[in-house]
Design a protein that fits this description.
Radius of gyration: 22 Å
Structural class: mainly beta
Strand order of the largest sheet: 1-2-3-5-4
Shape: elongated
Number of helices: 5
Mean pLDDT: 85
Order of helices and strands: HHEEEEEHHEEEHEE
Number of strands: 10
Largest sheet: 5 strands, mixed, barrel
Strand content: 35-45%
Amino acid sequence: MSEYSWPWENEKYSASGTASAWTASVLALPLGTLITGEVIGRQPFGSFIAIDGHPDALGLARVNLKPRCLKLPTLGQRVVGEVFYHEEHVRQVGIMLSEWGQHKDLLPSFAERVGQVVIGHVAKIAPIGVFVDLADCVAGLVPLAEFPEPATEAVKDLHEGQEVSVQIVSVDLERQRILLSYESPLQLIRGAR
């Protein structure tokens, strides 16, 4: 089964009811209204929500409102949120999920820490380098070029989850990227093989 589906593929939704009841839905669900509901469809751009107590209203939690490290809720998942906008041309009630609204973006705080040595955990070893988790939803990259030659030898001693010490080289808030360098040599804190 695909992770993506449209709400009309689910017996819990009727598109004809949504169109004819749009005005009533907007009046019953003004901006700021707290809602609960069930995910009845999912696309790469968001999750469609059947809003409890409003069978003719179709909610949409859009991916552009989601913190970058959180996942879209899946089909059948129960959600809690707040009416954030009304999109008349598609007759959808925009929903800001509670967990999204409560999430604090820690990336900007790392812009103030350029030059500092921090402790993180190896998240992924990739052909371009080593991704290191620094905090909740904040990861940086130690490019392969940062490792001594041959880089593959230095990287092979690392494993996912391993605690390491790295230096913050730069933080690009616009592109949401952190560039790291290894301490010379990369300091292995715990979990070394």
